[in-house]
Design a protein that fits this description.
The protein is of the alpha/beta class. The chain has 10 helices and 9 strands.
Length: 341
Amino acid sequence: MDFWKSRLTDIEACLSGVAKGKVRLLAKSAGGRDIHVVEYGDKEDFGRKANYGSACGAGNPEHYARKTKDSKPVLLLVGGIHGGELEGIAAMTNLIRIIETGTDYRGRRHDYLYENAHRFRLLLVPCMNPDGRARLPIDSLIDVPYDEFVYYMQGSWKDGTLCKWPDCKAVHPIKKASGFLGSYFNDDGVNIMHDNFFAPMARETSALLELADQEAVDFSINLHGGADTPIHFVQIFYLPKYIMQKQQAFNHRLGQAYAKLGLPFSEVDQVVDDQGKYPVKSINLSSAIHHACGGMSMTFESNMGIDGPGTKLSPDDILDSHIALFEQMFRFYLEDENARE
């Protein structure tokens, strides 16, 4: 799988070939590793006078960012929040390759992405958690047995038992309680997806929220792996209903695109309330990004091709599903007037 560029060294090689955009250091990880963001398109001045929350308190988000029909949409894509979820990392390196050359690492052309990338301000973070990625000793989870997958992702407890989902979130930071620290976590044992967003424990979290805030991001997608489930977006809570409705529209649009491609997709309703199994719902990283910038903020769960009891996609299908996601993200803003309102 020469196109499956998911190593930290693969990311470095990919970024060394960036000519149309700008590569800058976003942050250092807990373990001292570089986290880069690739920027395409110039940053615009939106006349900021207040942060997003304060502007909403004043009754007008334009105090935060005044955007016109001529403003380029600001799109943020983040891979490797859980460092062992390699699908998003491989997809991001291929997307950068497409924007630079028109072809992915398989040599396949993607003209729509290549020809329309200049119509956006793109912020691409190939791997937000290089600590977790460095801890994973393999380059692909394709065909990996389920229990081995759990070990690599969430790790083990001190007694050697597997640290399974969702109990891996019951201790946070988890470092002192773990036997093997899974690739979910940075070197301090923080799961960035479930940091304390009001007083972040991780410098990675602070840097990403600051990026969303300073850039006034219109649409962000955090790229995750959903084991052997069909591809889907997870529900995000504590968002305004109009944002949930826009995210539901995109959810439906992607489902239609996948149906044409023959890819499995579970259309999970994105318009949600606080009713359900638990009395309270999690404010996670996707929730926090919205409240930093006011934009759409979704969590994409890729199939991972593991050897489990559920759905199993090939590496090509996994990459194709991400490329279709990126294309529909572009089309959503270029073709749908409601997306820009």
